[in-house]
Amino acid sequence: MKKMLTVWLLTALCPIVAALAGEPAAGTEIVSPVDSAIMVYVPGGEFTMGLTPEDVKKVAADLGHDDPERLWAWEAFPQRKINLPGYFIDKYEVTVELWHKYIKASGRSLKSTETSQHFDKPEKQMLPAAEMPWEEAKAYAKWAGKALPTEAQWEKAARGTDGRLYPWGNEAPTMDRGHFQPKGQPMGNLLYTWVGRFPKGASPYGAFDMLGNQYEWTSETNFPYPGNPMADKMKDYGGQMIVLRGGSWYHGWVGYYAAKRFGFKPDETYYHVDFRTVWEPPAGYFESEDFKKAQAGVPARKAQLAEMTKLAEAAAAK
To answer: Structure pTM?
Structure first.
């Protein structure tokens, strides 16, 4: 009985624990001081994580599948309420510009040339960094004073608190909401595209490209969720891969819903893999000069990104 009372108290107090003093509005933007990424705020509190069987049927219909089994959506069972403290998440996937900054500051390098081939091309700076290994994504996050998101952090940033299936709501994906491979058509020469290109696909907190463009590393392994009634279907591979989120442009119309779990082994990556980072502010941050400074830097940083985006748009129009 004592144990049950303790659990009840912890659950009841969770929203109080999650809220920081002076917590700003959802979507409040700051500039991260090390890597200059714009980040958006996800307030503390509950959200709906995972899917129901009814959700899976709708998503399968939205994506044009007669058989929901094609989605492997049992990996997202069961649906449940999760409570998280507030945090900031990158507004965009880590870009060529930011990765180059990291390489110059850290002295590290990658065997892959998928991203480094763009370093000296002004019109390519807003492309997402590509072919990112998990260990390097973690190293970048550590350098920037941040972390890779947990699955729950990523999913809340993508879905908000109303249980929606996609960042924009419950309407089926369309080509103006993200960089997706066209149904039944080859992608052509266009692989990943510049970040922030599809504002109609933004999440409730203002995060872009959370579906489409690149897959994004999380910090977690693909074990079945506690209480998953379909856990036996994952027995041969559960726990062996690092979870990727976001349904990359390459994956076809099987990954474009916010609860989708995918994964690669830690030493595996491809040119449709990138990441974004998160940061949990300490107590007192929202009353600090650091917060004021981080907010004040947003307009100038947005102006820089706008100029690089114009170069990308002009190059694409040729």
So the answer is: 0.92
